[in-house]
Amino acid sequence: LSFFFPPPKITVALFSIQDRDSGENGRMVCSIQDDVPFMLKPSVENFYRLVTEGELDREIRAEYNITITVTDLGTPRLKTEQNITVLVSDVNDNAPAFTQTAYTLFVQENNGPALHIGSVSATDRDSGTNAQVTYSLLPPDDPHLPLTSLVSINADNGHLFALRSLDYEALQAFEFRVGATDRGSPALSSEALVRVVVVDDNDNSPFVLYPLQNGSAPCTELVPRAAEAGYLVTKVVAVDGDSGQNAWLSFQLLKATEPGLFSVWAHNGEVRTARRLSERDAAKHRLVVLVKDNGEPPLSATVTLHVLLVDGFSQPYLPLPEAAPDQAQADLLTIYLVIALASVSSLFLFSVLLFVVVRLCRRDRAASGGRCSVPEDRFPGHLGDISGTRTLSQSYQYEDCLREGSGTSEFKFLNSIMPNHHGAVNDVEEKSNFVKGFGFNLKSVEFSENSG
User: Fold this and answer.
1) Which of 82, 84, 275, 407 could serve as 66's disulfide partner, Cβ 3.0–4.6 Å?
2) Phi then psi dihedrals of residue 385, to 5 deg
3) Does residue 347 register a pLDDT over 80?
4) Distance CA 371, CA 360 (A)
5) Considering only CA atoms, which of 215, 214, 303, 296 is closest in space to residue 252?
6) β 189-199/102-108 pair status
7) Whether the Cβ atoms of residue 282 and residue 258 lie closer than 8 Å to each other
8) Which segment of 2-6, 19-23, 31-35, 163-167 scores lowest on mean pLDDT?
């Protein structure tokens, strides 16, 4: 008998029993073992039905061997046994299950096309076509990931083949989902996550960031001659596009104009003086430094350094010939700016002085009737300068007086000294007022005789 997933109380088999004796010897009892999910139910006289007690699951147990025992009630009791085999048929009630929920696969970069990078596997607990599984790539979560150009999968066995060469520096890892579908009706499916990690290969040489090696004018490092041993001259800075030990860099001094004068630290690229400098050391030095990674096989690059020994950092540094014309033009422009500034300043000062002289002359002309100069006989002979320098040799004293009710100050000669020269006093007053107009506040001025 063969059944598929029957519900409870379903009749599996119908059979009848008989005994040729009569009376108590012909009465019979029918039974089965207790460890099976079935039971016997009497139907009409001497007829029994084998029915299920619960749901049957083929994936738990696909076959049952049932022993039916018939015993009479005579003395002695006689019995008969009959074996029945029940086969549970399959239905597609199980989806395929992957052996892992997530897979991590590793592939070396620069791989060849059609390289087998790993496999996925799924099983189905059903049987027949319900257990036959096919594999497929599911659409990636990232729509920009060109999955169909990176990998493919064998629909029958789940093998995964890289379709093109992978570059670690361009794509270090990517993820996608794989589906497994059975051939039942209706079909059931499941999925698993696959992560592909690209393993770095030592395919990049070190790249020097400083000093630049782009074919332009070399950079010159200045070192004072007073530098002690261990003085930091410069530092070579380099990077490597690889990862891990393929990107570990070491530095080594290959060539030097004067061996033993400079050294390079292997792990950080610092260039330092190996000893104290002396006057006998050459002024110009050329160093060649090797930068090497730790890959297998190792890749390397070289960098050239130029070092100039100077007496001190105050010593002017001569520019390279390519930069000399630009510096000369800058100096010439500075000279032009200085000359222009001096010319404008001189013109301004000359204009101010000319303005002051014109105003003074106009004041003198207004006070003396148009005369700008003081005649030689303006002062008495006993007040003249015997040296011919037109200065006064006598003592003149000015007082700062306030005119009553005017609120302004003026100068006047003391009457005891110059009683007869009121014209000169008027001139001095005019000039005093003119000076105050320019902001001067003179309290008193005294000219003393040169008495030695």
Assistant:
1) 84
2) -90, 120
3) yes
4) 11
5) 303
6) parallel
7) yes
8) 2-6
Domain boundaries, the chain: 2-89, 97-199, 207-316, 323-354, 374-447
Quick one: tokens of 84? 């029945």
Separation between Cα atoms, residue 365 and residue 361, nearest integer Å? 6
Q: Hey, do 97-199 and 207-316 end up sharing a CATH topology, with the first three levels equal?
A: yes
Q: Which fold has domain 97-199?
A: Immunoglobulin-like (2.60.40)
Contact 159, 116 (CB under 8 A): yes
Is 3:58 a contact under the CB 8 Å cutoff?
no
Residue 186, SS3?
Answer: coil
**Please, which pLDDT band fits residue 368 given cuts at 50, 70 and 90?**
low
Residue 364 makes CB contacts below 8 A (sequence gap 6+) with 371, 372, 373, 427
Rounded to the nearest integer, the mean pLDDT of the chain is 79
Task: State how far the Cα of 158 lies from the Cα of 179, in Å rounded to an integer.
Answer: 10
Omega before 76 within 30 of 0, i.e. cis: yes
Q: What tokens appear for 341 in the block?
A: 């500034």
In this predicted structure, the answer to whether residue 80 has a pLDDT above a threshold of 70 is yes
Give bridge partners of residue 38 from the DSSP assignment: 52
Beta-carbon contacts of 176 under 8 Å, excluding residues fewer than 6 positions away, are 137, 138, 140, 145, 147, 151, 193, 194, 196
**What's 2-89's CATH class?**
mainly beta
Give me the CATH code for the 207-316 domain, please. Answer: 2.60.40.60
For the segment 258-272, what is each residue's pLDDT rounded down to a tens digit? 999 999 999 999 999
Report yes or no: 418 and 424 within 8 Å, Cβ to Cβ.
yes
Q: Give the angle subtended at the CA of 386 by the CAs of 384 and 391, to the nearest 5°.
A: 50
Question: Could you tell me which residues come within 8 angstroms of residue 442 by beta carbon, excluding any fewer than 6 positions away?
Answer: 398, 400, 409, 411, 432, 435, 436
Model confidence pLDDT, tens digit, residues 386-408: 344 444 444 333 334 334 444 44
The span from the CA of 391 to the CA of 387, in Å, is 9
Helix (H, G, I), strand (E, B) or coil at 329: helix
